[in-house]
Design goal:
- The complex is a heterodimer.
- Helix content of chain A is about 60%, strand content about 5%.
- Chain A has 12 helices and 4 strands, in the order ααααααααααααββββ.
- Chain A has a two-stranded antiparallel sheet.
- Chain A is flat, with a radius of gyration of 26 Å.
- The termini of chain A are far apart.
- By secondary structure, chain B is mostly helical.
- Chain B is globular.
- The two termini of chain B are about 25 Å apart.
- The chains are: A mainly alpha, B mainly alpha.
- Chains A and B meet through α3 of A and α3 of B.
């Protein structure tokens, strides 16, 4: 082996050892770093988008993209960092996600025609602060008056707030925009007559699922549709439990006992109960329902099921 | 000396400047750019939740602008100073080449380098958009690319102007400051309008027109929405660039022609 080859090998070995040490040290530093005061990660270090606009050297869109990506990672990151906190898609406040609105607001101030943050905010913010959800959707409409989907999202927020008259008014305004689907006009009538019904909810989430431009909204709408299916299934199970109780004078001790009674229960839209190999009845996320023998009622397994309620 | 002879000399200097830039591996930045765009095309789908096309436009054209500005500044300020430092300027000027022709040739040579750089980058962004399904954005970005190139030609002129009388480090700093302030031109105008004092108003109003208004070249955010700059607007910006760059290069040539190299 000549001198040059030896030098090369020695350098490579040294670099490999050095990098291995660096990796180990980096992990060690990460673990031994003194803890920061609680809530430090939420220190509002992000500048205001409106003010940033003049300082981004013509790269407003790129900075808006950065805020958009931040907002997408924000909730997921909080959940990963706080596994002990139990959250549902109806209430994300235990995570203290107070920067989501500023991120979305900044993204849309820097690029007012960037519609994704408005849609995302309208779907996710109701679980944090409904006022902020309305603000972001209204900002979207002010900046993009011809985007009927923003009216759909604002109508959705008012529907969540059970303000059906207001929701009908918003759907009506959106339905007049060229290109708006007939669904918008259907929702006007539905909000006025049966705003709080399960079928209205199904129509809203079905439309949201079909029209979703990002996977998060699609996933959320899908989960809501599964939840609605589960409500129908739970209604059917309760009927079967009541029949069993009437016939036997007691609560069934397990799902297997209830199976014969379930054959007479018809679920809406051709749905059928699904049973696993242990004769347990499964919810739409394939987790067995829980039969609470004390209250003689059915619930979902809140620990394992992906359903929000 | 006929106009054709003068053009011939300028062309020769420009061609040599371009060759020099290639020899100095200036175009190697394209490799970094291509890697950046490939990484963006692969990873942005997840990170942006389906909005990768617009982010590729923002990121690609943003990188094109910043890479171009750094080339314009660092290569631009060294074009003249390097010749003086290495004393090769004596060899050039001992030939029948005017100092003004030297400056114009140098400027055009770097503009040619930047043109090729920008065109290759634009093609890279278009290719990335085709891969992710840009929905027509791959063609629509070229108006914004043209505006970026025009902005770079202004920055190049300013870098050469400063380097004609100042040190390379100071020239680079001053050019970068002009790039930043140039993007605040609209704020200068608004600031002037809000001032009470007449002289302050006149001063900031003067600055607004004196400094290049680089916000006129900002079209990246619009391009991400599929907007194309109107032909009339592009033509006006091109004319503004031609006039402004001519003034800057003219002044640079004047200063350089009076400079004493002893």
């Amino acid at each position: 082996m000549d001198r040059k080859t030896r030098q090369l090998i020695l350098t490579l070995v040294f670099a490999a050892i050095g990098f291995a040490a660096v990796f180990a040290l980096a992990d060690r530093l990460e673990l031994s770093r003194p803890p920061l005061p609680e809530g430090f990660e939420d220190q509002d270090l992000s500048l205001q988008g409106a003010r940033l606009k003049g300082y981004s050297l013509g790269l407003e869109g790129l900075v808006a993209d950065w805020y958009w990506m931040q907002s997408l990672q924000y909730i997921g990151g909080k959940i990963l960092r706080n596994p002990q906190i139990k959250v549902s898609i109806d209430n994300l406040n235990p995570l203290n996600p107070r920067l989501l609105y500023p991120y979305l607001d900044n993204a849309t101030s820097l690029d007012p025609r960037f519609t994704a943050p408005y849609y995302y905010g309208a779907v996710v913010l109701p679980a944090i602060d409904k006022r902020q959800a309305i603000l972001i959707a209204e900002k979207g409409i002010a900046n993009n008056p011809n985007e009927w989907r923003l009216y759909q999202h604002l109508g959705f927020i008012y529907w969540k707030l059970e303000e059906y008259e207001k929701a009908a008014e918003i759907y009506d305004r959106g339905s007049k925009i060229p290109g708006a689907p007939s669904f918008m006009q259907v929702m006007v009538a539905r909000m006025k007559t049966e705003g709080g019904s399960r079928e209205t909810a199904r129509a809203i989430y079905r439309q949201m699922y079909d029209e979703a431009e990002n996977t998060r909204t699609k996933e959320l709408a899908e989960l809501r549709l599964l939840e609605l299916d589960s409500f129908d299934e739970r209604d059917g199970l309760r009927k079967a439990i009541a029949t069993f109780k009437e016939t036997n004078g007691r609560c069934p001790k397990d799902w297997a006992e209830l199976l014969p009674a379930l054959r007479n229960i018809r679920l809406p839209r051709g749905l059928a109960f699904r049973v696993d190999r242990n004769n347990a009845i499964l919810d739409p996320t394939n987790v067995p329902y829980v039969l609470n023998r004390e209250s003689c009622d059915v619930t979902i397994d809140l620990e394992k099921s992906k359903l929000p309620s | 000396m006929s106009i054709f002879q003068q053009i011939g000399k300028i062309t020769t200097i420009a061609r040599n400047t371009f060759r020099e830039a290639v020899r100095d591996r200036v175009l190697y930045n394209l490799i970094v750019f291509v890697l950046l765009i490939i990484a963006a095309a692969i990873f942005l789908g997840d990170l942006t939740d389906g909005y990768e096309a617009r982010t590729i436009v923002d990121l690609g054209l943003g990188a094109m602008l910043l890479f171009g500005v750094f080339i314009a500044i660092f290569v631009g300020v060294s074009l003249v100073s390097k010749e003086i430092e290495k004393r090769t300027i004596y060899a050039v000027l001992s030939k029948p080449v005017g100092r003004g022709q030297f400056i114009v040739g140098r400027y055009l040579g770097l503009c040619l380098t930047l043109l090729i750089n920008t065109a290759v980058m634009g093609a890279g962004v278009s290719a990335a958009l085709m891969i992710v399904g840009g929905g027509g954005l791959e063609y629509k970005i070229w108006g914004a690319v043209a505006l970026i190139y025009l902005e770079l030609t202004i920055i190049t002129g300013i870098a050469i102007l400063f380097s004609s009388f100042s040190s390379p480090a100071l020239s680079a700093l001053l050019t970068f400051l002009v790039f930043i302030i140039g993007h605040f031109s609209a704020s200068l105008r608004d600031f002037a309008a809000n001032l009470g004092s007449g002289s302050a108003k006149a001063f900031f109003g003067f600055l607004y027109y004196f400094l290049p208004n680089l916000s006129n070249y900002s079209f990246i955010t619009n391009a991400a929405h599929g907007d194309v700059p109107p032909a009339g607007y592009l033509a006006t910006v091109a004319l503004y660039t031609l006039v402004y760059a001519s003034i800057v290069i003219g002044v640079a040539a004047l200063i350089f022609s009076r400079r004493n190299f002893k």
